[in-house]
Amino acid sequence: EYLVSVHYGAVDYYYPIVFDADEKVVAVQMSVYDTTTSDEAIRVMLAHFIISVAEEGISVTEVHLLANDGDRTYIGAEGSEVSSEVLTFTLPEGATDFSAPPDLMQDYLILDNNRVADTLPMPPGERELVYSYELAVEHSGGFTINFHIDYPTDRVEVLVEGEDIEIASEWLRPLGIVDSGSGQKFLRLSGENLPGGANIDVRFFDLSENGGVTPVLWVIPFALALGVAIYLVLRKRRRVFQDSR
C-alpha cells in the first residue's frame, strides 16, 4: 500500500494506492482544485450533539458531516495562503477538556473565545469531524446549554442520555426516545435548515428532583466512541430509508 501526494495551489492532496498480489502497475486519477478563501459553499449536512449528564458535569460529543458544494478547495478566510484556521467551530461557554480521536487530534487548533479550528483544507466533497468536551453546570434549578451554529446546517440532532431527564428547546422539536443500538436510551431533539450564526438552546429542568443525574461522569474517550456509534446507527437508518424510497 502506498500513499501518493500531489502539491497544488499550496494544498497537499493525498490518495492511497493498494496493489493486489499479482499487480505490478496501478493507475490512479488524482483530482486537484484551485483554492478559495470564501466559505459560501461550506455547509453542515448533519450535526449531532450527544450529551451525557453527571453529578460532576456534562460530557458533550459533537459529530459534524460537512460538505463543500463548490468547485474549489476552501483554505480559510484569511490571506491567499493556506490558513492554520480553516473550519472554525464555537464551543459553549465554559467548555473544557477538548478531546478528539487520537488520529484526528493533531488536526485541531484550540483558539480563544471558546473556538476550535480544523486546520485541514476542505476540498469539494464531504468530511466528518468528531470531538468532545466537558461543561461544568449547577444542576439545582436547571440550566441551559447554548450551541452556536457556525455554518448553514441542514439538520441538527441533539441526543441526551437518559429517559427521566426533562428538556426543551425553542429551536428544536422533541422526537421521543432513540436507542443507540447498545441499550442506552436517549431523548432526541431535532431541527432543520438552521442559518449560520444561530444559537440553539437546550434547556434542562431541575435534575435534582427527577433523579436524572448519572452518578459517575463518562470518560471522554468513551463518550467519543458512543457518539460515533450513535451517529453511525442513525446514518445507517437514514440510508435504509432513502434507499427504500
How would you summarize the topology of this molecule?
Elements: E1 2-8, E2 11-17, E3 35-36, E4 42-53, E5 58-68, E6 73-74, E7 87-90, E8 96-99, H1 102-105, E9 108-110, E10 115-118, E11 125-135, E12 143-148, E13 153-161, E14 167-168, E15 173-179, E16 185-194, E17 199-204, H2 207-210, H3 220-244
Parallel strand pairs: 3-6, 4-13
Antiparallel strand pairs: 1-2, 4-5, 5-11, 7-10, 8-11, 9-10, 12-17, 13-16, 14-17, 15-16
Polypeptide structure, described:
The protein has 245 residues and is mainly β. 13% of the residues lie in helices and 44% in strands. The protein contains three helices and 17 strands. It has helices spanning 102-105, 207-210, 220-244; strands at 2-8, 11-17, 35-36, 42-53, 58-68, 73-74, 87-90, 96-99, 108-110, 115-118, 125-135, 143-148, 153-161, 167-168, 173-179, 185-194, 199-204. The strands form five sheets. A seven-stranded mixed sheet has the order 8-11-5-4-13-16-15, with helices on one face. The chain has a three-stranded antiparallel sheet with strand order 7-10-9, with no helix packed on it. Strands 12-17-14 form a three-stranded antiparallel sheet, with no helix packed on it. β4 (42-53) and β5 (58-68) form a beta hairpin.
